Amino acid sequence: MSRALARGMGTFFKECVHSESGWPKCPHPYKIRYRNSAGRQVEESGFPTQKRAIDRLTEIYNAKNSRRVGQSKLERIQKYGDMRFEAYVAEWKEGQRHLSPASVRHLESLLQHHLLPALASRRMDSFDHKVVEGFIRSMERNSVGLATQSNAFDKLKMVLLDAHRLGLYEDSPLEGVKPPQYDPSRAVIPSLDELREIRSAGDDVFRLVADMMSGCGLRNGEALAVNVKNIVADDVYRVREQVNQTTGDYAPLKHRKKGQYRDVPLPARVKATVDGFVEKYGVVDGYLLRNPKDLSGAFSLHVLQNRWRRIKADGKVQIPEGMTLYGFRHFFASNCLSHGIPITDVAEWMGHKSIEVTFKTYRHLMPGSIGSAAKILDMGLAT
Fold this sequence. Notes:
alpha+beta; 9 strands; single chain; 4-stranded antiparallel β-sheet
């Protein structure tokens, strides 16, 4: 006599004269019978209790199921891992039967204009958070609207979650990725022609500050503390201090302790502006700018802001909408990055606390994606 468990688990029994009701007290050992992964019937014996026999059958059953699941996952990975994104999306779309005609058209548009141009040939098993971040940055560089960025990211997210459920990734390629939320328009940057017109619309003080910010990357408070003693070479300016906006006094640099400094490039045109200002107005303790009412004090940021507002109010020159005084410093970053200067150098010169600050603010100005680079490199390899 034997007792079967759940379908596929096998049976346990005793080979003795005792009835099943007497098995718990019977001294004979339990036996189990089951089919192995090859389908052959197997028996095992020597189990002292019914519980030990059932535990063994359960262990064998779970192991067989685990192998089936593992084999199924391996087959899916082999099938879809090497598949290109374009082919995978085509298959995935077939399952989106719940979408309305309008939603289908919207999906097709996002695929045609954003997803496929950037990702069509990428293998599905190569996606990770860096690839997804790179896709978001490529949309930022191409000035894609924030709403469209979000929609395109949502569709990519749906596709990758589907692949993750199939077992293509141990960790989700979306883990740690922040949805599109950065609007590059907040860093309003004047063109070179606009910069020239704006600086010419101000007085000598305004032009000096504009040149220190746009040519050396100084913050406005740092530009107000410009000092001839900080010109440590014809082409190097050492930024040592700033005018604190709250106190109006000289203070250590942002993110730095007293006495710390950073060296920045000093373009010849900016040095000419400094030299011309010194020749015309002289200096006090090396400082070019001082409080007009009290030469022992620093030049007020409030006064500089008033001069900027007057230039904007006059309307004599074209100023990009939304531009602030900080636009001069943004121009410095743009000028550096667009001419191939490494972002690590730019971050150091601008005095950012970390390169991540520079990257988040100016990443849309950096050279194109890997795909764009591949096209550029191919041009150099063409015969």
